[in-house]
Amino acid sequence: DGLKQCLSEFKQQLAWVERLDVTSGQVVDPVSQSASDKDAVDPENDFQREMSFYRQAQAAVLEALPRLRKLQVPTRRPDDYFAEMAKSDQQMQKIRQKLKSKQEAMERSEKAKQLRAMRKYGKKVQTEILQRRQKEKKNMLNAVKKYQKGLSDKLDFLDEEQTSSQGNKKGSANQRIKKGPNAKRRYKNQKFGFGGKKKGSKWNTKESFNDVSSFRSKVAHNKGPGKAGKGGKKALNKRPGKRARQKMKSRAR
């Protein structure tokens, strides 16, 4: 009774625009939109509790804004309004750097996880290949031993080995055909030819022996122009004797 009496003494009947009080109940989560989750906020969970406060304050603002506009009270600050923030730029820069370093650490950790998974998968594939090869080798050795002891007269393991080797050779040949020569090989082929048989390439054949279209009698018998006497070209280019060469050297000195 005493509290109610004190309240009636200092209570002032002012207009709402002077009080700006808005009472709002708990707001339902818009994601769930279920009435069962209305009272499901755990007070020990900091995130749920803060989100409940945030939604309640947002609902109160949405209720108060139309009433202020109806009373012609401005609700947006002017463009030239300046107010100092509660936290300085240095503090915000520290927070930004901390968040950035945390994000980079998470990305590095994710990359490391991916690398470990890839290595693990590669090792698994490698062990499977080694096990398959060991199994094939063991089966072939057992087949050889049986054949040597006379327990089996089948030589299927040899056929399988030959077919596998032939298949590998064919595969490599097909790859070479599809791939073709590289630029260096093509340049050498263009410059030096494509190889082939060299020995006996200048031998006469029956057709070349019977073909006398390129025969010149004057050239063959040293009767052409520029031939000097009996010796022809050889007589003109005859080397002087030893004494003559010695005399020529002594004159030069």
UniProtKB/TrEMBL annotation:
Keywords: Coiled coil, Nucleus, Ribosome biogenesis. Residues 101-113 have a biased composition (Basic and acidic residues). The keyword 4Fe-4S does not apply. It is found in: Nucleus, Nucleolus. GO terms for biological process: ribosomal large subunit biogenesis; rRNA processing. It comes from Aptenodytes forsteri. Residues 163-175 have a biased composition (Polar residues). Its main location: nucleus. Residues 114-123, 176-189, 230-253 have a biased composition (Basic residues). The lineage of its organism: Eukaryota, Metazoa, Chordata, Craniata, Vertebrata. GO terms for cellular component: nuclear periphery; nucleolus; preribosome, large subunit precursor. Belongs to the EBP2 family. This is Putative rRNA-processing protein EBP2.
